[in-house]
Specification:
Blueprint lengths: L1 E6 L7 E6 L7 H9 L5 E6 L8 H4 L4 E6 L2 H8 L11 E7 L3 E7 L5 E8 L8 H21 L2 E7 L6 E2 L2 E2 L4 H15 L2 E5 L4 H12 L3 H24 L1
Parallel strand pairs: 5-8, 8-11
Antiparallel strand pairs: 1-2, 3-4, 5-6, 6-7, 9-10
Helix pairs in contact: 3-5, 4-5, 6-7
Length: 240
Amino acid sequence: GKVLIKIPHANGRHEWIEAGVKFGKRHLPLLQELIGDCYSYGAGVTIRLKSRREDWRKVFRKRLYLYLNIPASLYVKYFGKRVRVKPQNTLYAGFDLNVDRINMAIVDPYGRVRDAKKVYFPEVVNYGEDKSRVIRQEALSKLVEYAVSHGVKYFVVEELSRPKSIRGKVRKWTVREYQQQMEMLVKKVGGVLIKVNPAFTSIDAVGIALLRRIDVHTASAYLIALRGIRRHAMMQKAIT
């Protein structure tokens, strides 16, 4: 197929170029519906480099990629995960989201710990923004899939908007990116996403970590899960 790409200029006199594009066969039905119906979407072009040292000027003609920002509902329709929340799933999973790791604690409706998992990826602090984002997204996707297959229905995250820091530096990412991906993943598996107040989580997690002899990030995930249980109970009470 062919696409039109806008090349912006500082003087405001933008130009358009026509370029050929190839899509995977499995993406064609989604693209046909996206273009044919009244969906709002965004698009852009990026250069995929193998390392930060690679000179983009030498490879950009061979590694130009078109990316689309499409509605989550449309993505779920065509690329929903194979794992799905079952009627008997009743557990809660709390997530502690950080720059270099994700911790997850699975608890039952009574607040008892059933399982805990973590994915640690310290190398991302030295990677570019795009590569780091992919690593974090893959890690979160695997944890969500694991949670569903182990009886989780409710996924609990903190409602944050500011980035956390690591080693004195604030990376170019925000917890909001995690939240956006979590919203899409939970919708794909048919779960329920619960957002809770983040106040004093880090402080309270220290006491829980000492009491239960676990690391502070797992304690934080456990505390977030407990808040999710209370939040869900309040929501159900308000409905009735």
